[in-house]
Amino acid sequence: MKGGCCCGTPEENTFSKRGSDFIENSSCGGVPNIYRARSCFKRFLWILLVLGGFGMTGWQCYEIIMKYYSNETATGITVSYNSTIIFPAVTICNLNPIRLSAAHLNPELHALFVQNYQLNGDASTVTRNPTTTPATTTTSTTTKAPGGLLGGGGGLIGGVLDGVGDLLTDVVDGVDNTLGSVGDIVGNVVDTSWVDKLNSSDYYETKSQFLQNEEAFVNAYSKTNQTTKEAMGHQLSTALLSCDYAGFPCSPQNFSFFTDPRYGNCFTFNTGVLAPVATIAKTGPSHGLSFELYIEHDEYIKELSASAGIKLLMHNQSYMPFPADNGLDLEPGRRSSVSLSLLQVERTEPPHGTCHEFSRDEGIQVNAYSELKSLPIEYTDEACYKTCLQLNIIKTCGCCYPYQPCSGVALQSGLDMHDDTQFCNISNTDTTSCIKGIQSRYNKNDLGCSDICKPSCRELMYNAQISSSLWPTNPGMSDLIDRLKVNDPSLKPKLGNMTEDEKRTFIRDNVLKVDIYYQKLNYETISTTPSYMLEDLLSDIGGQLGLFLGLSVVTMMEFVELFVDLFIISIFKCCNPATKVASDKSAWK
Fold first, then answer.
1. Which of 84, 228, 322, 565 is surrounded by the fewest CB atoms within 10 Å?
2. Contact 404, 346 (CB under 8 A)
3. DSSP character for 404?
4. What residues pair up with 256 in beta bridges, in sequence order?
5. According to the UniProt entry, where is the signal peptide (predicted)?
6. What is the per-residue pLDDT across 62-88, written as a single tens digit (0 to 9) for each?
7. What is the pLDDT of residues 381-399, one digit of tens each?
8. Do 494 and 559 belong together in one domain?
9. Of 456, 471, 494, which residue sits at a domain end?
């Protein structure tokens, strides 16, 4: 034998010999051609091609790796079918937050919004005081002396002349009054022109009267205890005339209750707290929720309600409803059909996305609404953002923004900084200025709320299509009036004294019907997934190596074998110096 099976004879164990063997026998397409080239020009071309291939491969591999670490995502839409589907929670709020006849339960609210009203006998009958001043008229009498046909100051001609004079006087006075009225109108137009308002430096700083009324209400309402809040608002026992779910009757006992700072008493059906969450297996109005509501239009306070009707929201059972931000406004005198379709959104977690799946305990730490006992509230980014804003207002301004909760674990770090933290008085200039400063930083994302309030990895939404028709029909008026009298006995004398036209107008202004149902049992899923995975990276790198260098996994193993052999030769030469000298001498011969 000439040598060991591992490295061959000493004469063969040189770097140059092993390198020559690799170049001559490599499966890497261009490398053997360098060795076999018959002319220097061809050898130069092959070297150039191989180096160019290595350069292109390196550049393409860099681009591929950068693409992998950019964490790109792809969004896809799939449509699925279920034989049963969860029915959403349905929240209803009257557009009027408190009843006019119950405002006296809060003296501050009574003074703010009922000061232009006069109570007649009891608190349930309220009329407005006159706000117009009766016009004052003056009467002047002229006595004329009797005279003949041409008599001085009298007679026929004198009477005619006096009549002409009076007529001219009336004309002149009329022109003067007309010109004066025109002057007043022109003056008013000039004084209140939009151009002057827009040019004013404080145009966008002055709040509308309606917003001022709302803030004054929320300011006083936030300081009211929960029992009084509920008593002042519209009662579902009075408002709910009929209710059916999938053909079976429901009642106020099937609705959970909470108070909203803007809309007062709100009621939610199918929360999962009072009964298991309802599911539906069929589509159409007969297999959904249907109810009739009496909105008590006569109890509205004009300073707080610009329109009449209800706010309607469809949402997941674990989501906090925010009627001021979301929902539909439905008017009385109509039957509204709300057909639903379910939309599911699925997001990816880091590094390809920013979503986070919050546990119950994690949600409590960042969501002040999650401790609401009447609703099974869990984490939503919307509730988290409101909590984050409230926490920063508490820390900086020392009080709670009255539009949001003022207690809970999520706010405790701010509450601990101040003794006996109360709701802010937003009519106070300094307090309002502090809150506006925090809100400005919030809008610029300077508070870091986006770092805390990550979107949920899975979210359910409901798309609604609405249609409506006049309701009730004229023949159906009498039945509805009978139900009204049973539901609210105080209406009996009032309705009894009305004509048929007045009753019809009363019903159109006060009662509505809503049908909520699924349009289809299909639901869409919008999912975001990583578009470039590790297997894509390896595949693309292999493609580039094969395209520009003709490399494969076998070729890569040849390179590994080369490096192993070179390493063994190095060890062999270090351990056998005599062999190294002999090999070097033979190399010079």
1. 84
2. no
3. S
4. 268
5. none
6. 999 999 999 899 999 999 999 999 999
7. 999 999 999 999 999 999 9
8. no
9. 456
